[in-house]
Amino acid sequence: MRIYYYFYFYYFYNYYYYYYYYYYYYYYLLYYYYYYFYYYYYYYYYYYYYYYYYYYYYYYYYHYHNHHHHHHHHHHHHHHHPPPPPPTTTTQTPPPPPPPPPPPPAAAATTTTTTITTTTTT
């Protein structure tokens, strides 16, 4: 009877461990996808920064070109204003996302059920 209770406890412990591992696995998957979107946002942010500086360069070049070649035109032409600065977020690169853990052992629940059937005979 003592062995039976021991195996019963072991069976439920294994079952809880199995579900805990499943929860841990999905949590890590969510964490992994969150980091993937974080990286996507960062790439978009750097792309926006590059576009912003390119636009700035183009704006100043155009301004310089207008002031040096059209001096006889002294009418106040409305020149384009530079675009608003990009969002001030940290320029630090985000840490790499952790690799997703291996899938939970599916054999854990099946192997323990066989131990239950063998212990019920005692």
Describe the structure.
The chain has helices spanning 2-69, 107-119. The protein has one domain (2-67, 77-119). The model is unreliable at 97-105 and 107-120 (pLDDT under 50). With 122 residues, the chain is an all-alpha fold. The termini are close together. The chain has 2 helices and no strands.
Question: Which keywords apply here?
Answer:
mainly alpha; disordered C terminus; 2 helices; 122 residues
Count the domains: 1
N-C termini distance: 8 Å
- Low-pLDDT residue spans: 97-105, 107-120
- What are the secondary-structure elements, in order, as H or E? HH
Mean pLDDT: 66
Largest sheet: none
Tell me the Rg in angstroms.
Answer: 32 Å
Oligomer: single chain
Overall body shape: rod-shaped
- Structural class, by secondary structure, is mainly alpha
Count of individual beta strands: 0
User: What is the beta-strand fraction?
Assistant: under 5%
Number of helices, where a helix is a run of at least 4 consecutive DSSP H or I residues = 2
Amount of helix: 55-70%
Task: Spell out the blueprint of helices and strands.
Blueprint: H1 2-69, H2 107-119
Sum this structure up briefly.
Keywords: Membrane, Transmembrane, Transmembrane helix. With 122 residues, this protein is an all-alpha fold.
